[in-house]
Design goal:
alpha/beta, about 130 residues, four-stranded mixed sheet, 2 domains, Signal recognition particle alu RNA binding heterodimer, srp9/1
Length: about 130
């Protein structure tokens, strides 16, 4: 079975979005042009930013319908990300809290794409998190 290897976000300004993701996540650029930027992820997959004005076939109105999620090892690391991103002025749309996916918070990039940081539920140690 094949595995997804490239995730594409349609953006207004690929250069500005490249700067945002490089600063925020420390991603390595493997290809860059004024309308398309691609990053290498540690998993081996790639993430691309493509101008919503030049991609073909044309895209309709873009709304947030998915998330870029980052799994971390502990609740305290979620809090560290939250504090660091908040101090950089990144828009936080959900404060840290326990949800079905674990301890999490959600932010947005300049185009409104959701960025979630989470640690897995502590079901074995505290079943209330998984109710």
């Amino acid at each position: 079975m094949s595995q997804p290897s490239l995730f594409i976000l349609y953006v207004d300004n690929p250069t500005a979005s490249k700067d945002f993701y490089q600063e925020l996540l420390g991603l390595t650029v493997v290809e860059s042009s004024p309308t398309f930027v691609m990053f290498s992820l540690s998993s081996g997959a790639m993430m691309a930013l493509w101008s919503k004005h030049t991609v073909e076939p044309k895209v309709g109105q873009i709304t947030a319908s998915g998330e870029y999620a980052i799994s971390v090892e502990s609740d305290s690391i979620v809090d560290e990300y939250h504090q660091r991103w908040s101090s950089k002025g990144i828009t936080i749309i959900q404060q840290p809290q326990h949800k079905e996916c674990g301890y999490t918070f959600t932010a947005t990039d300049p185009d409104g794409h959701r960025l979630r940081v989470f640690s897995m539920p502590e079901c074995m140690n505290n079943p209330r998190y998984c109710q």
